[in-house]
Each structure stands twice: as structure tokens, then as C-alpha cells.
Inverse folding.
């Protein structure tokens, strides 16, 4: 298996190798508590063994439901917010063509709802749904989150009007708690196929449950390979107790070392546009896990070279708040060369014969050099290529490192009490009974 490499040589001006090595006992202690399940948040550690323990019967049922729905749908509306949609979106956007909406391949195209309350968004979605055969995956662990509940009410009414209540109930899949919540009750009453989000898996760690697997499979991607990547990464993360051999230990150690040296922001920088939702998923994972008790690196993201033309100035010369984690991909899945032009009016014939990946790699190298000389430490994460297996590895790597990093920081990485504050205010303003 091709591993994820964590290269820390570009942080040495800010933190020394000895200082990173000195964190080994702390990250190992965190790993020990994570695996033993004897520290804060230990009722939410179901994700640790998920790739090994996934239920084969559930997977077979999920694939059968996907085949049935894909056979009669050009679109699937995935309704969910936060951990109930970002994981699926990350994988789908990483793997599908950037132009999938226009191309319409063999698998249904995924559209999203429940992650916003934008009124125009919903009227545009309803216009689209008028003209397309579609099905719906409604995803909410609590089954009571307002945004997806509102979206589901709107989409369900449209679906029932379009196909009739009986057929509509065959086009909806609910992914929710095994016993509780309004969504669970609706699904039971209407007879929707239902999948369970395990009690001990929090939203941001749930991409390898039906929450992520069903939409990803619906979009035509190989969930077995995704799980295989996660399984192999799990084995490595559990077996290896060295910083050099275990990428999760190294990543957790270096980001804590830099945080202790005063860095306040971590920018996840990707060199490919189709990884932008990986950054969105990562932001939730790290922001919700570590941003508490007045602590934690603020997760931010850049896509290069696009954002070098907007945020590049700040990163180079602005306040020295940040560290950078650059996600680099060794191989593209396809190649495009720069063609020769006899007139060379644009002056770029010197690039002829180079692939865009070679040019992009030089942009990345140049960016690292510039940012390091501008006082920004850079951690490189290097992966082979963007495919299901690698994404499975990345998912488990980031999750495992997050658990270790959060414990090393001294917080409970598995709760999110701060998310409730806006909800209470919103309910009061909306006049919800009891608020
Ligand atoms: O990570 C989390 O717990 C949150 O982001 C939730 O996933 C999000 O609030 C959605 O919650 P639910 O799945 O209960 O609708």
C-alpha cells in the first residue's frame, strides 16, 4: 500500500526536530486512551473500529437500495447538514468530473439540501426537480435538526405531489438514529427504507457509515475500495508507535508543537480544485473537535494556485498567525500537456512538453519556498492519487490524528456543546414553543 507521507522539514525554523520528538510520549498517551476508550468522549469512539466492523448484511442491503433507486433516478437529493453531509460531498466532489452536472454520466447526479436556509436555493432546486426523475436520502442523526427538517418537508411535499405518496415512499431513504427522533418516527410511519447511524459515532466521524456510504455509492463510486483504504490506514495507525512510521502521530505532534509556539491558524492547502470539499470536511472535523475551552487551531483552507491570487498576499506578509498543511498528490488520473504554438505570442513555449501536473508541482514548490521564507511553517501531506482507496486512507488518517491531537491539546474531541448556542437563539426568535 502507498502510504500517506507527512513531511515536516519545512517547520524547522519554528519548532525543532527535538521539540517534535519530545511530544511522542504525549501523543502515544493520547493514542493509548483513544484505543482503550477510557478518556473524555469515550462514548463516541465507534468510528475507531468502523472500517473493520462494518456490517456486511447492511452493506449488501445498501447496495441493493442504491441499484433500485439509481435505476429510476437521474438525481438524488441528499438532505443533511454538518457531519450528515460533508463527508459524502467531500468524496463525491473529489471523484466526480468537475463538469458532472452538465455531463450526466451513468450514475445519478447528487444535489444537496438541508445544509442551508437560502430561500432562492430551494426555489431553484424545486424548479430542477420538476424536470428530473429523482430520489431522496434524508440524513440526520438526531432526527430533529431544523435545517434538514425544513428541507425534507419541502422536498417530500414535492416528491409526493410528483409521484404520489406510495411511489414517493419508495424513493426516500432515511439515515438516522436506531430508535429516537422525528425523522425515525416519520420513516417508520411512511415505511421508508432506513439505515442506522450508530449511537457511538458522532456526525463528523460518520462518513464511513451509511451517512457517507449511501450517497457515495449512489454517485457511482466504489465504497468497498473506500473502506479498504480506511481499513489499511487503521491497521497502520494502530500498529505503529513511531512518529516516522505513523502519519497520524506525526501530524498530531507537529500541529500541537506549532500551536504551543503560538500558531493560531492552520490552513489546509490543496493543489487540486476537486479537493475543496475535503478541506470543508476537515474544517468541521478539526474545528468542532478542538475549538473549545478557549483553545485550538482555527482551521482555514486555501486552494492553490487559485487562492494565491486572493489570499496569497496575506499569507506572505500579513499577521504571522498561521501554519500551513499542504496536501500534495503525486499522480493525476489523466494528463494534459501544454501545446506548442509557433508564434509564441503569449511567451509560454518554455512550458511545452510539460504536463500541467509538473507545472502545478512547481507552483506548489514555489509556494512552499515563499511561505517558509515569509515565516509560515509548512507541513506536507503527500498521497499517491485521488481515488476511492486514497480517500479512505485520508479519512481514517485525519480522524485518528484528530482524536490524538484533541487529547494532546487537553480537550474532549468528541463533543460539540458550542453548536447549541445559535440554535437556542434561533428557536427563541422563531417562537418555537419552550424557547
Ligand atoms: O458533527 C456534528 O455532530 C454536527 O455537525 C451534526 O452532524 C450536524 O449538526 C447535523 O446533526 P444531525 O445529523 O443530528 O442532523
Amino acid at each position: 500500500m502507498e502510504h500517506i507521507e507527512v513531511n515536516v522539514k519545512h517547520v524547522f525554523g519554528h519548532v525543532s526536530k527535538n521539540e517534535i520528538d519530545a511530544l511522542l510520549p504525549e501523543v502515544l498517551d493520547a493514542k493509548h486512551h483513544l484505543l482503550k476508550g477510557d478518556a473524555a468522549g469515550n462514548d463516541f469512539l465507534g468510528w475507531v473500529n468502523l472500517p473493520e466492523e462494518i456490517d456486511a448484511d447492511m452493506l449488501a442491503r445498501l447496495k441493493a437500495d442504491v441499484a433500485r433507486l439509481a435505476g429510476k433516478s437521474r438525481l438524488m437529493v441528499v438532505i443533511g447538514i454538518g457531519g450528515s453531509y460533508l463527508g459524502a460531498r467531500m468524496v463525491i466532489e473529489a471523484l466526480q468530473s468537475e463538469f458532472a452536472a452538465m455531463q450526466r454520466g451513468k450514475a445519478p447526479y447528487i444535489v444537496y439540501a438541508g445544509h442551508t436556509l437560502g430561500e432562492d436555493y430551494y426555489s431553484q432546486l424545486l424548479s430542477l426537480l420538476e424536470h428530473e426523475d429523482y430520489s431522496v436520502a434524508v440524513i440526520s442523526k438526531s432526527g430533529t435538526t431544523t435545517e434538514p427538517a425544513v428541507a425534507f418537508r419541502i422536498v417530500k411535499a414535492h416528491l409526493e405531489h410528483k409521484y404520489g405518496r406510495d411511489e414517493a415512499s419508495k424513493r426516500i431513504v432515511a439515515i438516522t438514529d436506531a430508535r429516537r427522533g422525528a425523522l425515525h418516527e416519520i420513516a417508520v410511519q411512511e415505511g421508508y427504507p432506513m439505515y442506522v447511524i450508530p449511537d457511538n459515532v458522532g456526525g463528523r466521524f460518520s462518513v464511513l457509515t451509511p451517512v457517507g456510504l449511501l450517497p457515495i455509492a449512489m454517485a457511482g463510486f466504489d465504497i468497498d475500495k473506500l473502506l479498504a483504504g480506511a481499513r489499511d490506514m487503521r491497521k497502520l495507525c494502530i500498529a505503529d508507535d513511531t512518529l516516522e512510521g505513523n502519519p497520524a502521530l506525526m501530524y498530531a505532534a507537529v500541529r500541537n508543537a506549532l500551536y504551543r509556539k503560538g500558531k493560531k491558524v492552520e490552513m489546509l492547502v490543496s493543489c487540486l480544485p476537486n479537493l475543496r470539499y475535503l478541506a470543508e470536511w476537515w474544517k468541521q472535523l478539526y474545528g468542532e473537535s478542538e475549538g473549545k475551552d478557549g483553545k485550538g487551531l482555527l482551521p482555514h483552507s486555501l486552494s492553490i494556485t487559485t487562492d494565491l491570487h486572493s489570499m496569497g498576499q496575506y499569507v506572505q506578509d500579513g499577521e504571522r498567525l498561521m501554519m500551513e498543511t499542504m496536501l500534495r498528490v503525486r499522480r493525476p488520473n489523466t494528463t494534459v500537456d501544454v501545446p506548442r504554438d509557433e508564434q509564441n505570442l503569449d511567451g509560454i513555449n518554455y512550458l511545452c512538453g510539460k504536463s500541467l501536473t509538473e507545472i502545478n508541482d512547481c507552483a506548489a514548490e514555489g509556494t512552499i519556498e515563499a511561505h517558509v521564507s515569509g515565516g509560515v511553517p509548512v507541513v506536507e501531506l503527500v498521497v499517491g492519487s485521488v481515488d476511492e482507496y486514497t480517500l479512505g486512507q485520508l479519512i481514517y488518517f485525519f480522524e485518528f490524528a484528530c482524536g490524538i491531537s484533541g487529547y494532546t491539546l487537553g480537550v474532549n474531541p468528541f463533543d460539540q456543546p458550542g453548536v447549541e448556542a445559535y440554535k437556542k437563539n434561533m428557536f427563541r426568535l422563531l417562537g418555537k414553543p419552550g424557547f
The chain has a mean pLDDT of 96. The longest helix spans residues 388-409. DSSP finds 18 helices and ten strands in the chain. The beta strands are 5-7, 75-79, 109-113, 134-140, 172-176, 194-196, 265-270, 298-303, 322-329, 378-383.
